[in-house]
Specification:
Naphthalene 1,2-dioxygenase Alpha Subunit, Chain A, domain 1; 4-stranded antiparallel sheet; homotrimer; 18 strands; Rieske Iron-sulfur Protein; 22% helix; alpha+beta; 7-stranded antiparallel sheet; 33% strand
């Protein structure tokens, strides 16, 4: 159950090379390739001739050529040509609107006629040289909503990520969740604490004393269909916390684009944008590696949770105050799903 | 189809460390851990908060703490506490009575109110320093009853274990099967034969000439739900066989605790207790390694047998006199199952 | 959906050693072994005693002995003997007529009473010392008919095998398909072209200049149930092409015996017979290795095609003129299947 008339991240821009890329999004097998103008196109990964995956083929002069018998597929799902054959009668395959933005290829898996670039989310920092981004991709066998739950309740950091970003004060400090239209925001502000190891590293990178007492914040923002952006940071205690002047703090935005592959698997695009030392590519790599290790700690938990839920379908889970972010996000999804299905 | 109101071996005692141990028994996902008093407890491997496996968590001060959001689970399946939340309304999970005995943790997967330590089987040698035990654990994809059949008809040794404990005389010597209440006993006595390689080794370890003519015995004892203990040994010919004085024989007891994991998979705890040189730990290790190799020879046979039976459900198998032990053991199980299901 | 009253290749003759060979053909689990006269026999891979695979047993004095409890199985599926037991009442298992010919063991998976050696296909070159054969076996997860389609439309060589036997002229030259009774023949004749790498190698092996202009031919011959023999070759241009004198050409026959394992998997026996330098075993090995690499290029395409078709059952494929060979072969199969099922 996922929204289809919306934009999902299909891949990182650098995944599109001179070869086609096959990827399933929302149960749709798609193939991505760069056309003659360098624009990424996406069509169903299915040759109308013999049913082979077009992603096993090649891209010649901006056209997708089937690797089995040379059928040439157009960006609109209509067969362009085939050696020795007329192709007017060929049944078209689906095509999927795409947009390349923020270093990602975005795809609209639903009705192409409804695709609206205006509905792309806006992210000010991706294209701003004052910010730097680093991230990666994980494949996880769980319902995409389990990952939203995970990200909207960061008390799990205390347990799953206890050696890096977790600390007891997350557990001990209540969060507040509000809904603004289709957005859900869960925030937590901790005051007068010591920074955990990951943030000590970030403080040093910001030329701050890593043993100083700090204020720490986590502001999780869900937007449909399944994006969670999290403003995170620490400031020297008493300098204003989240609102402190830049020289007193280390802060960044955790980026989570969750793309359903199937009903029970996801492509999880994770990353971080930061405003400190954006030109320091070694620091970008170091942060990405560190984040990659931390975020990999969630994988087994989520996959085993999914299996446990599958094996116990009758069992009702307990909803607590810390689950408010996930619960409200699911309500937004359900409301939009109902609207989409009634169209 | 297995008995649930009974004791099964869940694990070897040394498998319970300072971490929780997840293990499925009789289709029930369980987590085992040591409580504050050092006693092993078992509850359903399912956090009532979000459904994650509690076995991914940790044990703190004798309490099981969920690794996702810190829920503290009690030995009785009731939530003890959770940071920042009241837990009175939490739905409990199942708990399973356990006993630690004979170097194993035993679990009662059925109704906890019926759990009766008095129903634990008695094994005199496990806690007797005159005997030594060594053993291991195999996971096998077969119905637990196929393993009972295997162990109650040792003519298979002639074929499956032809280079170690098998010999043609097993095939050529009829066995006798009797039922005593819920116990089934199949015995075979061979006289005036040469010992096969494994028993030659045991004779040497008992300071007996390994080329001597011997009498050999095999006494397989099934007790519900799925334990098979086998008295095995050789004695110098004419010294009384099974009843010979200890100085004339080498003998031991093969221990087989078969625990259904699911309908078609088992945890197979195998081992051997012996009365000769019990203090010789190197000999214990040598025997365990030898037995481990021999018993691993059954795995492919049993797993492929299971697949063959699954693919040919209409095919009736042939029951022979050598199958009497397995057939009668299944009758005991069926009778007890009918009684259990009529409760 | 495959024909059963017909001969399939079960294995290469050298696969039958002194051990039994288990192999599934047309959804029937079979075990092959050499009887006392050195003749290969095949029976159901299922012991009538306990259901274990007989292929886990051994062959003793030309008899198949179950590896679990020593049951001796006869070539006709009747139990011969078992230590200590009367076997008259044992339910027989299926037996399958076999023939050893052309270096292969052939099996008739259907009604044994209908097995007719006269229905074996005739191949003049296998037993002719003027020809040499080399080949191998691949296991592929696809319906056997997808492999027939593949072999009856060689335009795929241009794309799948572009670096060895493919060239644009295959695509550009129309083929012609005819049906002769149960046989289907698709042929293509290219004139005045340059040889692709594999044929350059063959020209050198025939002492022909590999940069010469040539005529090239491909004559694909389907015979039921699923054999595809392909006459292939090149001749110096203007020397008569297919009909040219031997000294002007390099030619061979591609051998494809496709044996369904299950509805969606095959044993694919591929090879090549050639008339040039038949005594040169190093050349035989070189050609087999080269062909093995080339033919392995089809595997992923066919397996992914099968998955794509499974996931899109509603989607109708396009039938083109190049598909005539496969389409007509399927018609022959369908006609024979209807006849077989109406018996």
């Amino acid at each position: 159950m996922f929204l289809k008339n919306t934009w999902y991240v299909a891949c990182q821009a650098e995944e599109i090379t001179d070869k086609p890329l096959g990827r399933k999004v929302c149960n749709e097998a798609m193939v991505f390739f760069k056309n003659a103008k360098g624009k990424v196109s996406a069509v169903q990964d299915f040759c109308p001739h013999r049913g082979t995956p077009l992603s096993l083929g090649r891209v010649c002069n901006g056209q997708l050529v089937c690797g089995y018998h040379g059928l040439v597929m157009g960006c609109d799902g209509h067969t362009v040509s085939m050696p020795g054959h007329q192709v007017r009668g060929f049944e078209p395959v689906k095509h999927y609107p795409t947009l390349e933005r923020y270093g990602f290829v975005w795809v609209w898996p639903g009705d192409p006629n409804l695709a609206d670039p205006g509905k792309m989310p806006e992210f000010e920092w991706f294209e701003n040289p004052k910010w730097a981004y680093g991230g990666g991709l994980y494949h996880i066998r769980c319902d995409y909503r389990l990952m939203i739950d995970n990200l909207m309740d960061l008390t799990h950091e205390t347990y799953v990520h206890s050696t890096s970003i977790g600390q007891p004060e997350i557990d001990e400090t209540p969060s507040r969740t509000v809904t603004e239209g289709d957005r859900v925001i869960t925030s937590r502000f901790m005051e007068g604490i010591k920074a955990p190891p990951f943030w000590k590293m970030a403080m040093r990178a910001n030329d701050l004393p890593d043993d100083a007492t700090v204020d720490r914040w986590q502001i999780c923002k869900f937007t449909p269909p399944s994006h969670v952006l999290i403003e995170v940071g620490v400031a020297l205690a008493g300098k204003g916390g989240y609102a402190a002047d830049p020289q007193h703090k280390a802060y960044s935005v955790v980026v989570d684009f969750i793309t359903p592959e199937t009903d029970s698997t996801i492509h999880y695009f994770w990353g971080m944008v930061r405003q400190f030392k954006p030109e320091d590519t070694a620091l970008t790599a170091q942060i990405r590696d560190g984040q990659g290790k931390i975020f990999s700690e969630d994988l087994e938990m989520l996959e085993r949770q999914q299996r446990n839920l599958d094996e116990n379908p009758e069992r009702k889970l307990k909803v607590l105050s810390i689950d408010a972010g996930g619960v409200m996000s699911r309500r937004v999804i359900d409301r939009l799903l109902a609207a989409e299905n009634s169209m």
